[in-house]
Amino acid sequence: MKVFLKIWRQKDAKAEGKLVDYEMDDVIPHMSFLEMMDTLNEKLIVQGEHPVEFDHDCREGICGQCGVMINGRAHGPLKNTTTCQLHMRSFKDGDTIYIEPFRAEAFPVKRDLKVDRSAFDRIIGAGGFVSVNTGQAPEANSIPVTHEMAESAFDSAACIGCGACVATCKNSSAALFTSAKISHLVKLPQGKLEARKRALTMVAQMDRENFGHCSNTEACEVECPQHISVLNIARMNWEFAKAKVLK
Amino acid sequence: MKKELISTLSRKYLMALTGLFLCFFLVIHLLGNFQLFLPPDQARESFNGYSKLLSGNIFIKAISYILYASIIIHSLDALLITLFNRKKAGKYEYDKRGAASKWYSRNMGILGTIILVFLIFHFKDFWYQYKFGALPVDAAGNKDLYEIVIRAYADLWYVLFYVLAMFALGYHLLHGFYSAARTVGLYHPKYVNLVRVFGTWYSYIITFGFAAIPLYIYFTHY
């Protein structure tokens, strides 16, 4: 099948970028979206051009490295799917496909489709952990956790940090990402000990990183590859208020 | 990387709490207004008496100051949040993000602006008239606000403006009510669903309840 690509090309963080047209004649519907991009890049390299740079790693939908805006949607037209799990069969012969980086004030473009998502790392660094002395692994059943609560905590912990929530949010809010970690840890006995401090420090860091306010449009949940629930945001708001009142 | 005086979450709390107070006020307002559906003579007596009762009550006076403050804080905070978000938000050459959310959830600012414009007219029509205008007096000696209400809806265009504003309010509430519940931290799935259903019905009742009044008056009096 044939597709017409309009890809964001930008030399570095400071350069002005623009959409550049490419044509692909030999796309196989079974190709993943990133394989299509690889094929394009092979051509560009042969032609002596700089390949289109984009982030990717596992290509199994679990690492959170890949992620671009495809036809104006984070990770493309499918719900709850990473870019690497999108296949060319989701497009038709002759389609024009716009490919842009995830954009937000907090996610500066580094080159082409690659953005700097280290703001997420700093939010985690601000409190997304439990403080324990490492040593031998303790007996697993010494702290009882119900199956339901373990599952619920795991649902929140499933966030892969791809940044689609921020990219799709009209306010570029990182509420879903931050709240997933806050509620993952507060649901478990080990995480409860630092719950108040964590809620305050992680939210403060989120604000410092120039993300916008959450206005509950819920677009983040729709685009999230892990279908992280927006109820995590409610949990974060609750924990934050509790911490403010009780600190 | 400057430090904000007030966190994004606290800001949203302010929006939610003032919004929920306004939601509560709308219920009381609508219940009072339902007196307008009584037969004309009875409506005049009942509605004017009710207005007199409210305006003379010190407790209601205190609530009214909270109401004015809520409207102002809710609007100003919304304006600041919207401007801030616009600066932080990513902009795309080709943008179809709207497919992932409801249009009214993304346009609360526009809906809110329509409501604010409506409020200016609404305050001018009734609040200002009652407080500072030269009002006729009814048989019981009370200021005849009922007469002012009837006169206000003589023009069909004005009636339609009121109805349109009520639909803007309805969509604003449809998102606003459960969004406020989310912001204040209601996270249990069971109650979240209850609140969503309640909020939807609440929005319908408020919208159609208020919109029915100018229409009823227009079609029964003119």
Automatic annotation (TrEMBL), chain A:
<dbReference type="GO" id="GO:0022904">
    <property type="term" value="P:respiratory electron transport chain"/>
</dbReference>
<protein>
    <submittedName>
        <fullName>Succinate dehydrogenase / fumarate reductase iron-sulfur subunit</fullName>
    </submittedName>
</protein>
<dbReference type="GO" id="GO:0009060">
    <property type="term" value="P:aerobic respiration"/>
</dbReference>
<dbReference type="InterPro" id="IPR017896">
    <property type="entry name" value="4Fe4S_Fe-S-bd"/>
</dbReference>
<dbReference type="InterPro" id="IPR006058">
    <property type="entry name" value="2Fe2S_fd_BS"/>
</dbReference>
<dbReference type="Pfam" id="PF13085">
    <property type="entry name" value="Fer2_3"/>
</dbReference>
<dbReference type="InterPro" id="IPR036010">
    <property type="entry name" value="2Fe-2S_ferredoxin-like_sf"/>
</dbReference>
<feature type="domain" description="4Fe-4S ferredoxin-type">
    <location>
        <begin position="150"/>
        <end position="179"/>
    </location>
</feature>
<dbReference type="InterPro" id="IPR050573">
    <property type="entry name" value="SDH/FRD_Iron-Sulfur"/>
</dbReference>
<dbReference type="InterPro" id="IPR025192">
    <property type="entry name" value="Succ_DH/fum_Rdtase_N"/>
</dbReference>
<dbReference type="Pfam" id="PF13183">
    <property type="entry name" value="Fer4_8"/>
</dbReference>
<dbReference type="InterPro" id="IPR012675">
    <property type="entry name" value="Beta-grasp_dom_sf"/>
</dbReference>
<comment type="similarity">
    <text>Belongs to the succinate dehydrogenase/fumarate reductase iron-sulfur protein family.</text>
</comment>
<dbReference type="GO" id="GO:0051537">
    <property type="term" value="F:2 iron, 2 sulfur cluster binding"/>
</dbReference>
<dbReference type="InterPro" id="IPR009051">
    <property type="entry name" value="Helical_ferredxn"/>
</dbReference>
<dbReference type="GO" id="GO:0009055">
    <property type="term" value="F:electron transfer activity"/>
</dbReference>
Automatic annotation (TrEMBL), chain B:
<feature type="transmembrane region" description="Helical">
    <location>
        <begin position="156"/>
        <end position="174"/>
    </location>
</feature>
<keyword id="KW-0472">Membrane</keyword>
<protein>
    <submittedName>
        <fullName>Succinate dehydrogenase / fumarate reductase cytochrome b subunit</fullName>
    </submittedName>
</protein>
<dbReference type="InterPro" id="IPR011138">
    <property type="entry name" value="Cytochrome_b-558"/>
</dbReference>
<keyword id="KW-1133">Transmembrane helix</keyword>
<feature type="transmembrane region" description="Helical">
    <location>
        <begin position="12"/>
        <end position="38"/>
    </location>
</feature>
<dbReference type="InterPro" id="IPR034804">
    <property type="entry name" value="SQR/QFR_C/D"/>
</dbReference>
<feature type="transmembrane region" description="Helical">
    <location>
        <begin position="194"/>
        <end position="219"/>
    </location>
</feature>
<dbReference type="GO" id="GO:0016020">
    <property type="term" value="C:membrane"/>
</dbReference>
<feature type="transmembrane region" description="Helical">
    <location>
        <begin position="104"/>
        <end position="123"/>
    </location>
</feature>
<keyword id="KW-0812">Transmembrane</keyword>
<feature type="transmembrane region" description="Helical">
    <location>
        <begin position="58"/>
        <end position="84"/>
    </location>
</feature>
